[in-house]
Amino acid sequence: MTDVRLPGGDEAAFLAAVRSADPARFALVTERHRRDLQVHCYRMLANYEDAQDLTQETFLRAWHKRESFRGDAALRTWLYRIATNACLDFLDKRNDRTPVPAALPGPGSELPYLQPYPDRMLPEDPQESVVARETIELAFIVAVQHLPPRQRAVFILRDVLGWPAAKAAGALELTVASVTSALQRARVTVRERLPGRRLDWRSPATHELSEDERGAVKSYIDAHERNDLDGLMALLRDDLRFAMLPDPGTVTTTAGEAVDGWVSGGLFQPGHDDWRGVTTTVNRMPAAALYLRTPDAPEHRLFAVAVLHIAEGKIAELTGFDAAGKPWLGLPPAL
Q1: Is the CATH number 3.20.20.10 carried by domain 125-207?
Q2: pLDDT tens for residues 129-158?
Q3: Where is the RNA polymerase sigma factor 70 region 4 type domain (predicted)?
């Protein structure tokens, strides 16, 4: 590693925990890095549950490798290195964690394993690059998944976290030249996957929802609760991109066709027309947690989470996640 330094407070506390061989003391020092590491694993894997598991794996590996830490690199750097390689090992063993061809004709691919990331689990410091909105939104997470795993790791370490090339090379056991080449290729792919989106990850980034976004998600919930199909249709752009995960098939459709499809599928029909909604945020994007009460149920149960991308006051992209029966994202299971 290249950030040679005298041990600071965090590193000194960690070295003391290592010398004590006390797991509880070790956990106390490393736990403060959990949220940063979990976001990092999520960017690598695009799946919230996998990110939780790999963060825990990172801490287990760190415990077993604790004697190798000498304090000549920042503790955070050392943990990121372990987390990155744990994710790469995971991806090496899983053939279901790469984009698959889209179900519909034409170019495109799907991420059936994509999951949203709850904002309440993001690191608390809004100035950290790890929580910049532009690098946690679903479109960015999906774009990054189209990079081969090691190229993905290089891109995240260099362009998102801002690591120098030598530091990233040390973490991945690559040459600086290999890292530079991988980054150039990764930037081309990400630029192709995010046309028209902001691609400068190092300048000041946004964090808060706009008034348009807050208003749109409120109107989206209100339309559900009133079964106002015309109002719902008016919120959608005519070139809406819609996906309902984990079902395959992202489609670009008109507002009318989207609503007609939901109705023909049984939604907003008798027995599936008693809705309640809760405004939330995931991936620093506006989202609606939708609850449905069926005739045989005494309460509204969590049904789906709809993540919205708002453009000029209208819903341009709607990514729905099946949440039925899941204790998901810290949301109440019923209302």
Answers
A1: no
A2: 556 788 889 999 999 999 999 999 999 999
A3: 140-188
